[in-house]
Design a protein that fits this description.
Number of strands: 16
Structural class: alpha+beta
Strand order of the largest sheet: 2-6-7-1-5-4-3
Radius of gyration: 26 Å
Largest sheet: 7 strands, antiparallel
Number of domains: 2
Number of helices: 11
Shape: globular
Distance between the termini: 22 Å
Strand content: 15-25%
Order of helices and strands: EHHHHEEEEEEEEEHHHEHEEHHEEEH
Length: about 400
């Protein structure tokens, strides 16, 4: 089993400058490799260049530019080229499936924040066994950087990545470890229904409030973005100190909201995993749920459009994004795997319209957002609780139907 660890680094001024140069030079390598692929396809009879061809050129590139490319780890540069190759593989996969392709784009220095070292000991070294109580990580061309290790790393370290977030630097480790001992069985099963009014409702009638971190920070974020918008668009090397401070303030607020969502997701998922052996949830297609409203042409007035509820749909999309369902479900599955719990996703259709008592399914069973009243048997309950009950039953049926 592979697990990831993320620790804050405390580099010196010179080390922070060297880390910035790593990102700059790997970004330049990424963009150069992308440009080579574009030129080969456009001008050389639509020739496709693969990762192996570009990796074979690294030796010459490092010899030609020893100051910017030759001083960094060879394997980390290969990882950057593989990153580009994965972007093209995803692009061609989307083309074949009929999705919006999204051709790989050039990366600005501010948008290239991670460099991976594929193997511990090759261009980097995680050092947590020394007699010195301070943990360090060593990078080629940078030196030994102090790390704030807030928890022990279990297992053998496989890969190491350096990541920049604003003015902070982090080291991200992946470690291979044995399957941990499962938590003691509780004999409890639960279905959960994710929502906007309440973040989560379970089949036992309990609710987890929606913290709405994005909305609570919206006023400060809007003010920071408005202050940033007053600066004219200029090249990065010509930006003033006040401009950079405005950019950092916006990034800092976004980072705060992101950390708050992650904290809430971790705590909620951990509580579910500790209390229940089996968890069923809706298999939500979040990307489809946050699409824009389709325009409605006015047939009587060519070129005009009828109201389509775009403003309301945009507000709903913001609320869905603010809830962070996708992040929560990913964390829930990871924690359940470590704890030996079972999590199953079920079809969400009609889960809030089907009566848990008689099975009658109709749109009229849910007259309001919160109220459920069955038109056949008269059963009344909270609509989210009804949805969670139906999700649990569908999950148990699916678990029984799975081959042993």
């Amino acid at each position: 089993m592979i697990r990831a660890y993320k620790f804050l680094m405390r580099p010196t001024v010179r080390q922070a400058q060297a880390l910035s140069e790593i990102l700059r030079d790997h970004c330049s390598l990424y963009n150069g490799a992308l440009q080579e692929r574009r030129d080969a396809y456009r001008h050389v009879s639509k020739t496709s260049i693969k990762y192996g061809m570009q990796s074979a050129q690294l030796k010459d590139i490092r010899a030609f530019d020893p100051e910017r490319q030759g001083r960094w780890s060879f394997s980390s540069q290969q990882a950057t080229l593989r990153r580009l190759d994965k972007a093209f593989a995803a692009f061609f996969r989307r083309v074949k499936s009929g999705e919006t392709p999204g051709y790989p784009r050039f990366r600005g220095v501010n948008w290239f924040d991670t460099v991976e070292f594929p193997k511990d000991g090759d261009g980097c070294r995680w050092d947590a066994t020394a007699h010195d109580p301070v943990t360090r990580v060593r990078f080629q061309g940078v030196g030994c950087v102090k790390v704030h290790q807030h928890r022990p790393v279990v297992g053998k370290v496989k890969t190491i990545s350096v990541k920049r977030e604003g003015r902070k630097w982090f080291v991200v480790l992946t470690a291979e470890q044995d399957q941990p001992e499962p938590l003691p069985a509780t004999g409890s099963v639960v279905g959960i229904d994710l929502g906007i009014a309440n973040f989560l409702a379970d089949s036992g009638g309990e609710f987890v409030p929606n913290p709405r971190h994005g909305r609570s920070n919206a006023a400060r974020l809007q003010a920071a973005q408005q202050a940033l918008s007053k600066f004219p668009r200029v090249r990065r090397d010509k930006r003033t100190v006040n401009h950079r401070r405005a950019v950092e303030k916006v990034a800092k607020l976004h980072g705060k909201v992101r950390r708050q969502r992650l904290d809430h997701a971790h705590k909620t998922a951990l509580a579910l995993v500790r209390e229940h052996d089996f968890i069923a949830h809706e298999d939500l297609k979040i990307r489809n749920m946050v699409g824009t409203a389709a325009p409605k042409p006015d047939l009587d007035r060519p070129g005009a459009f009828l109201p389509n509820g775009a403003a309301a749909k945009a507000g709903l999309n913001r609320s869905i994004a603010d809830a962070g369902w996708g992040v929560f479900l990913a964390i829930l599955h990871a924690k359940a795997e470590s704890a030996g719990r079972e999590v199953i996703a079920v079809d969400p259709r009609n889960t809030s319209r089907r009566c848990p008592e008689c099975g009658h399914t109709a749109k009229e069973n849910r007259p309001t957002q919160e109220k459920f009243h069955c038109q056949a048997c008269g059963h009344s309950a909270h609509a989210d609780t009804v949805g969670a009950l139906n999700v649990l039953r569908a999950g148990l049926v699916r678990r029984e139907a799975q081959p042993a």
